[in-house]
UniProtKB/TrEMBL annotation, chain A:
GO terms for molecular function: phosphate transmembrane transporter activity. Belongs to the binding-protein-dependent transport system permease family. CysTW subfamily. This is Phosphate transport system permease protein. PANTHER family: PHOSPHATE TRANSPORT SYSTEM PERMEASE PROTEIN PST, PHOSPHATE TRANSPORT SYSTEM PERMEASE PROTEIN PSTC. GO terms for biological process: phosphate ion transport. The lineage of its organism: Bacteria, Bacillati, Chloroflexota, Anaerolineae, Anaerolineales. InterPro entries: MetI-like (IPR000515), MetI-like_sf (IPR035906), Phosphate_PstC (IPR011864), Phosphate_Transport_Permease (IPR051124).
Amino acid sequence: MKAQRAALNERIINSLIKLAGYSSIVFVGLILIFLVREGLPALNDVSLKDLFGSRWYPIEGYFGILPLISGSLLVTVGAILIAIPLGIGTAVFLSEFSPSWLRNLLKPIIEVLAGLPSVVLGFLGIQIVAPFFRRFLDLPTGLTAFTGAVLLALISLPTIVSIAEDALNTVPPAYRQGALALGATNWQTAWGVTVPAARSGLLTALMLGIGRSIGETMAVMMVTGNAPVLPSGLNALFLPARTMTATIASEMGEVATGSPHYHVLFFIGIILFLISLVVNLTASSLSLRSRKRAERLLS
Amino acid sequence: MNLPEYSRKMRQVEVLGINLLRLITLLTAVPVIGIIVFILIRGLPAISWEFLTQMPRDGMRAGGILPAIIGTVYLTLGTAIFSVPLGVAAGIYLAEYASDNATTRLIRIAIINLAGIPSVVYGLFGLGLFVLFLRLGTSILAASLTLSIMTLPVIISTTEEALRSVPNAFRVVSTSLGGTRWQTTWRITLPQAMPGVITGIILGLERAAGETAPILFTGAAFFLPRLPASPMDATMALPYHIFVISTSVPGMPLQIQYGTVLVLLVFVLGMNLLATLIRNRARARRQW
């Protein structure tokens, strides 16, 4: 009798655990369903041509999201251009050249950066970074795409450094020993052997850095100046801009539920969801491939 | 080729290169320390007993930030209530129950995607599902549920990792003594993995505590004259409060702004420190 009850309990608990295990799939599905449910009606309210038009001025019924997409691209590309040399350089230094006491000191410090809330970085952007760039570059306002890019670089750095460093660490020591035995210097070994061997891991790091940048909301909204205009040239980097994320965050609070504006904001959410889907799937398939290759080489 | 000449050049390149990398690393690490020191210096003068325990006055330009502090505590606890049992159970499933098949791979892909979805998209989802469809309104409950789902991937992955690091011998012995899978997990594996699990929970909640975008349309309030009385009330919260006072309140004293940032920073980094301490202590004590 008692054993029967125990077996029943066990069965219930096991199914609950299985259910919890499947919950992630359910949530991704729910997120997609609710974004589509609220966002797809945008296509009824606004024609496809107007939706991908170049003017975002919701009060007068202009819902062209091109300026927002290009704003996101501008800021993200700027951020990645800053973050690649800093992130990969730091990772190579920490894993290949740094004495271990320094690595043990610096890694946690850089990881603290990952824990800083983005609103705190946005606040410092307003107080310090934007005024600095306004004076230093002699601009009419410091709240520009460039300021946003600098902050985004800072935000995506911990992701890039920590994943890139892991990738470099998993390169088998035999590779380095082989290069050194052939007379290569430490420097030549690092850039000629270790970095190329870790390249898919480094690409993963970059992809995830890009993912963080595109999805970042608060810091970007606070420092980019909130001007939804289509960039016209390279100097657009030093003008105010507006990203997709910032548009949702700053306008959703004021729209009427069910209005065209409301649907279009959810539609932008669908685009963001799809971008993050592509970025993350690419990143995970890259890291999977590198793991398989390492296994094959070492077996 | 003159060999010494060549190798001297190589040596120069190497020294130059390594110094350049040192500089780059410095450029990455210095802002972090700078940010924390700077906020400490500018924020500390604002901190007083009144600042931490009083309601805001004069359109938030004076008085304390008690409702924002309380709100963030409520939201963090609310998030924990939903995300901890679900996340730990899902981690247990992946580490102890799941076999390596297509469904498991799909679960992993789902987790990776949940981790990558932009925070403001979680806000949209929370608005669509919890606030409107389930009619919870903008409330602590809706915001906590939204934050919970965002926190899940962190808790699931760290729980799984912590369980996997427990040596298999523990499971083998328990099973050979007649323990079922659940008994083995609950009595043997999970206790062994507990420090790692707790570290993951704290790191997940730390992120939830600092987030603004997911609560913007699901539970955060610009200003409330009273503390929230039930989970169905909206609430003020530290991150949103920082956004509000630094962008939407003209004539806001800088000292209050820096003080509020410092309080959030202590809250968040305090959790981070706690997680690190638990991890290090467990590592030092571990017998396997």
